[in-house]
């Protein structure tokens, strides 16, 4: 999906909600466990119930990988089931030397057909660039993440700027706002206005709203740009809103609350 | 595998060679393509031909992931086929917020049974610690990598030290030399003596010998400690030493050259 299509989708739906399919076999409603693929059964119900309210689904690959080959089957079924007009994110945090990163890019863009993949920047330019050579595909580079550990390295000073600022400025020059986004945690709202000044045009993928405690209002006020420029992700707060036979309806209601709040800001 | 067993294996075999199974369906000998699982057939032949010369096998997961579910099947068959007395490394470069890193740790330590996994440090403490809570399992944290992109962030100054030095010192305090190693590229030999002073006891996983041009002699002189403390990886230089029906014998000869040079240093 290209940027124009994504922006159009956001305007049309009055939503910049991304729903994170962090689907954990131990947390889904018990009645699904008799299904031959319980994780896909859960995801299918969540997608059916929310697909008109969000503009993106984010699949956190770790939750699937830990199930072994069966998990990858669930992942593949899920990404194939997501309607083609919705943006898909492989939240895989990959990154390696150039020839290896090329294989990761092929994995998520070609083998599974995702629109985007999250990328860890520590190994530098040749680890990121292979993700930028695919038409209408996106690298979503870790900038300032939502977790406590962001303090350990990202918020250390390199010269007169924070490491994450150096990462944003440096990596932004390797791609364009048409093929690169940044992960900016909602729990870092105080920094978002400054980050938006550094990279005015790029989309931000914003995790940390909901279970991690970030504020949708704060991140919107500080992070929105003329093309909206935000994909705000909620995972647990939506998909585990309920835990019984009505879980999909509960998820829809949780997603609807986010969407309505977003419509108010648009 | 615990540290004592690893050191014993190195002394017994007079080898600290790790062979990287970066197995690419497009590079293996053509006669294997009729096998139902050509990647496993190639790996099996390489393992059979080299298992008395090395102490570790490193599986670069990207090469398997890009083949989709079939690739994970090849990976699983391969790790199960590696003799249990040889150290196994999932070169997967994972790292995410705490609860997600826990799933990655389970993936590689429990689902597939690897001894170790490579970990990207950018997201900080809670992204690394989940890999440290498994008995006789190891996190191998990226320190100073072998690629050109190491210059972009790892070799930037944070205060009066390089970022990679801060990463080494900070992450070393989260674990012990019994459950943590560091990736230190062989192409960075000039820095290895200083790195060894920073973390005197830890093992280093050293990629970059062979196709990437690093020197085994230089890395050994500067990096070895009283327990050897090195796993030097060669991938392409061993596994693609030949490309016809004799490829396994060619790989053995390439591995033997490394092992004999190592025996001379031990």
Automatic annotation (TrEMBL), chains A, B:
SUPFAM superfamilies linked to this entry: Ribulose-phoshate binding barrel (SSF51366)
Signal sequence segment: none
Keywords: Decarboxylase, Lyase, Pyrimidine biosynthesis
InterPro entries, A to Z: Aldolase_TIM, OMPdecase_type-2, OMPdeCOase_dom, RibuloseP-bd_barrel
Cross-referenced CDD domains: OMP_decarboxylase_like (cd04725)
Record has RNA-binding as a keyword: no
Entry's EC annotation: 4.1.1.23
Domain Orotidine 5'-phosphate decarboxylase, residue spans: 16-251
Name of the top EC class for this enzyme: lyase
Pathway involvement of the protein, from the record: Pyrimidine metabolism; UMP biosynthesis via de novo pathway; UMP from orotate: step 2/2
GO biological process assignments: 'de novo' pyrimidine nucleobase biosynthetic process; 'de novo' UMP biosynthetic process
Catalytic activity: orotidine 5'-phosphate + H(+) = UMP + CO2
GO molecular function: orotidine-5'-phosphate decarboxylase activity
One Pfam family of this chain: OMPdecase
Similarity field: Belongs to the OMP decarboxylase family. Type 2 subfamily.
NCBIfam families assigned to the protein according to its UniProt record, in alphabetical order: pyrF_sub2
The protein's name: Orotidine-5'-phosphate decarboxylase
Gene: pyrF
